[in-house]
Structure formats: C-alpha cells, structure tokens
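The data are quoted verbatim for completeness:
=====
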Amino acid sequence: MITCHVKYIIDPYQLHEFENYASKWIEIVELMGGIHHGYFLPSEGANNIAYCLFSFHSLAQYEEYRLALLNKAECVELFNEANQKKFILSYERSFMKPLLSDK
C-alpha cells in the first residue's frame, strides 16, 4: 500500500471553498479505487494549513488514477475551479508506506 500525504497552504478567507473542493475529492478517490483517510482542516494554530491522506494498493495504481483524472470532466472542473478561485496557494505531495496494526 502507498499513502499520499498532501500539505496545502490555503487562503484562510476561502476555507469554505476549500472544504467544498476537498469533499468532492474524497468521493472521487474512493470511486477510482483509493481509500481516502480524510482532509484535516485548520482549527487551532495556523489558519492556512490543511492536510490530506489517501491510499492506493500500489504506486502503479496511484499513477493509473492520476492519468485517469485528466480524462474525467469532474476532475478537470475541480482543477480549473482551484486555479480560478486561488483558494489553494501551494501544496506539497509526499508518498509513504503505512505501518498498520496486525489486529
């Protein structure tokens, strides 16, 4: 399994826009074979940092997902919305291998 960790720098004055965007991605990732672990939004402390975690069974499956996004109208619309409204200022993507409980 491979987990994608995304750290977002967001416009805190457009948190509601980011929340709408994020909730749509949760559904898309799950429909496309991933496991979404959620978005983590600012609460206390920094008001412009958000995180996201989602997993795929392999890096190859994640790469297939990334390619498929380019042909999915809903995804292209979400990318365009984020670019136009600028509620995401920047992001960093990292990949990790989770260590899960044997239970």
Notes: The longest strand covers residues 2-10. The chain is about 40% helix and 30% strand. Residues 74 and 81 are 11 Å apart (CA to CA).
